[in-house]
Design goal:
With 613 residues, this protein is of the alpha/beta class. Among the domains are: 235 residues, Rossmann fold, CATH 3.40.50.300; 169 residues, 3-Layer(aba) Sandwich (Rossmann fold), CATH 3.40.50. It has 18 helices and 14 strands. The strands form two sheets. An eight-stranded mixed beta sheet has the order 1-8-2-7-6-3-5-4. It has a six-stranded parallel beta sheet with strand order 9-14-13-10-12-11. Helix 9 runs parallel beside helix 11. The longest helix is centred in the first third of the chain and has 15 residues. The radius of gyration is 24 Å and the shape is globular. Bound molecules: adenosine-5'-triphosphate (ATP). Adenosine-5'-triphosphate (ATP) binds next to helix 6. Keywords: ATP-binding, Helicase, Hydrolase, Nucleotide-binding, RNA-binding.
């Protein structure tokens, strides 16, 4: 298996986080059970050693563990807290050793001021004027500060450790909605903090909710309370890392399962206990079929990159997981769907998974808008390499390519990625690749090497287009443009995150004519300068009503599809409440057919490596 020099360097530098000894509380719990771990519900797990020992949970074992949780036992409280139980340090329950996810950062719990946050480049004032649209009945009002939300002290402490000073707009709106027990379809721009927006309510809900029933002894099936699905292995890993930080010392245990990595290690982690399972669909189906995971206790289901999860590649797998296994149905579980893009067709599909939901669209949040400087250059296929070289030399000369400034180059094919990486390295530009033909180890090493700045150029297929939060990506180059404007939005969203500025350059030629109109519209809405030649391409391609045209006469979708006349289900929950910003947000005009690169891997049979999980 080929491996670039940079990957090898990164491999050798791989972290080896020390594992702290088990806490006193965990040891007490374990002894009490004659070395067998004793289940302690999350809301009791935080009691320190001095606290009274948790009483054995009085589970009603008359029903089997397969019985679904009591209907609405955890909902409808409007965020009300049922007796606390969170907040204290310590830990108990399962084999509950917990590495400190903040170990390699300055863990001072000094409050971060807004000024300090701005010094880090995060400027949330840029988000203040963002139009927000909500629809659905009885939308809970947004909050302005984390302090207004009763998330519990342990979680609040982690928010401080993460140095989050105030909630981003999607968090301000989404967290109260989810804490209110409502299903949610949320659309907010890349880099705007959606991960925390779905993690916080889940963690808080598990900390304070009803205790879960424990599987009988000897049964190796685990029953997580929350499931977070994402389309790629790397994104699942990232969500897992984030969720571990948010849930540190809360007693809530987060486990990740994804394809391409040995399943045995993941099984061992699951056996140690799991409250929140973060997974890619393929690996999850495997675990379900082996009966190592049961979804019967699921209270929270979150789909990150939900439009991708429900597009034609993933939809059958997602339906299987959500509808054909043992997961409680919509209305019993709470479901949250998040993405930066949400085509209407996918919204329609997604509504099958939701019950009485609120649609939330938070305007552009400066990702594909002001914060990302978008440029499109006309470059013939044969000139692309020399053009890229010119850009990289200019970056070097201007000091843009400092140690910390990273460049992410998107190409169409895996072979193309390898060839470009090779050529860049030959030309003294250290590069590595990530795509579906690389082993998982290689993919992870490449990402590490890129993140650390050892290899400041990453050549990627669409497998890296969504969700990845890599600090210091200063420049995204669309060496090959995607065929779908939503993919473009996600790709360029790897820069300009959390209020920071970024640059995105696209190489355009005749092969991309079908993208001309949607690209022009996107750039116009983002107040970017559209070259005259691109407008001419757009005018030509508009005659055929190109598949990538955004719906709504050039205005972006980002609107609840239920507002369209076509929504006529009985018992509609649409009440048209909320603010109406209009004309912003996610895309309409779902292009379809535009998933090159690793997409084909989704339908791969057993044993075939999929780029997506
Ligand atoms: N309240 C906050 N204050 C400061 N930083 C935040 C806050 N919320 C999130 N962030 C940071 O913003 C960055 C982007 O967050 P996140 O990855 O969740 O974005 P996203 O909306 O999911 O993006 P994408 O659509 O690309 O998946 C992360 O580095 C995260 O730590």
């Amino acid at each position: 298996m080929r491996s670039s020099w940079a990957d090898l360097a990164a491999n050798s530098a791989a972290e080896n986080a020390p594992t702290p000894p088990p806490s006193a509380a965990a040891a007490v719990a374990n002894n009490a059970a004659n070395t067998r771990p004793v289940y302690v519900p999350p809301h009791l797990r935080n009691r320190g050693p001095s606290a009274p020992a948790p009483a054995a949970p009085a589970f009603d074992n008359s029903g089997s563990r397969w019985a679904p949780p009591p209907r609405n036992d955890y909902r409808g409280g409007g965020g009300g807290r049922g007796g606390g139980g969170y907040g204290n340090r310590g830990g108990g329950g399962w084999d509950r050793r917990e590495a400190n996810p903040f170990a390699d950062q300055d863990d001072s719990e000094e409050p971060v001021t807004q000024e300090e946050q701005e010094n880090t480049g995060i400027n949330f004032d840029a988000y203040e004027d963002i139009p927000v649209e909500t629809s659905g009945g009885n939308v809970p009002p947004p909050v302005n500060t984390f302090a207004e939300i009763d998330l519990g002290e342990a979680l609040n402490q982690n928010i401080r450790r993460c140095k989050y000073v105030k909630p981003t707009p999607v968090q301000r709106h989404a967290i109260p909605i989810s804490l209110g027990g409502r299903d949610l379809m949320a659309c907010a721009q890349t880099g705007s903090g959606k991960t925390a927006a779905f993690c916080f309510p889940i963690i808080s809900g598990i900390m304070t909710g009803q205790p879960a029933q424990r599987p009988p002894r000897g049964v190796r099936t685990v029953c997580p309370l929350a499931l977070v699905l994402s389309p790629t292995r790397e994104l699942s890993m990232q969500i897992h890392e984030e969720a571990r930080k948010f849930s540190y010392q809360t007693g809530v245990r987060v486990v990740v399962a994804y394809g391409g990595a040995p399943i045995n290690q993941q099984l061992r982690e699951l056996e140690r206990g799991v409250d929140i399972l973060v997974a890619t669909p393929g690996r999850l189906v495997d675990l379900l079929e082996r009966a190592r995971v049961s979804l019967s206790m699921i209270r929270y289901l979150a789909l990150d990159e939900a439009d991708r999860m429900l597009d034609m590649g993933f939809e059958p797998q997602i339906r299987k997981i959500v509808e054909q296994m043992d997961m409680p149905p919509a209305g019993v579980r709470q479901t949250m769907l998040f993405s930066a893009t949400f085509p209407k067709e996918i919204q329609r599909l997604a509504s099958d998974f939701l019950s009485n939901y609120i649609f939330l669209a938070v305007g552009r949040v400066g990702s594909s808008t002001d914060l990302i400087d978008q440029r499109v250059e006309y470059v013939q296929e044969s000139d692309k390499r020399s053009h890229l070289m010119d850009l990289l030399h200019a970056q070097r000369a201007n000091g843009v390519q400092g140690k910390q400034a990273l460049t992410l180059v998107f190409v169409e094919t895996k072979k193309g990625a390898d060839a470009l990486e090779h050529w860049l390295c030959l030309n003294n530009f250290p590069a590595t690749t990530i795509h579906g033909d690389r082993s998982q180890q290689e993919r992870e090493a490449a990402l590490r090497s890129f993140k650390s700045g050892n290899t400041p150029i990453l050549v990627a297929t669409d497998v890296a287009a969504r969700g990845l939060d890599i600090p210091h990506v200063a420049h995204v180059v669309n060496f090959d443009l995607p065929n779908d404007i939503d993919d473009y939005v996600h790709r360029i969203g790897r820069t300009g995150r959390a209020g920071k500025k970024g640059l995105a350059t696209a190489f355009f030629n005749e092969n991309n004519t079908s993208m001309a109109r949607s690209l022009q519209d996107l750039m116009q809405e983002a107040n970017q300068e559209v070259p005259a030649w691109l407008s001419r391409f757009a005018a030509r391609s508009s005659f055929g009503g190109g598949k990538n045209r955004r719906s709504g006469g050039g205005r972006f979708g980002g609107r609840d599809f239920r507002r369209e006349g076509s929504f006529s289900r009985g018992g509609s929950d649409y009440h048209g409440a909320g603010n109406s910003g209009g004309g912003y947000g996610a895309s309409g005009g779902y292009g379809g057919g535009g998933y090159g690169g690793g997409y084909a891997g989704n339908s791969a049979g057993p044993g075939v490596t999929s780029a997506w999980d």
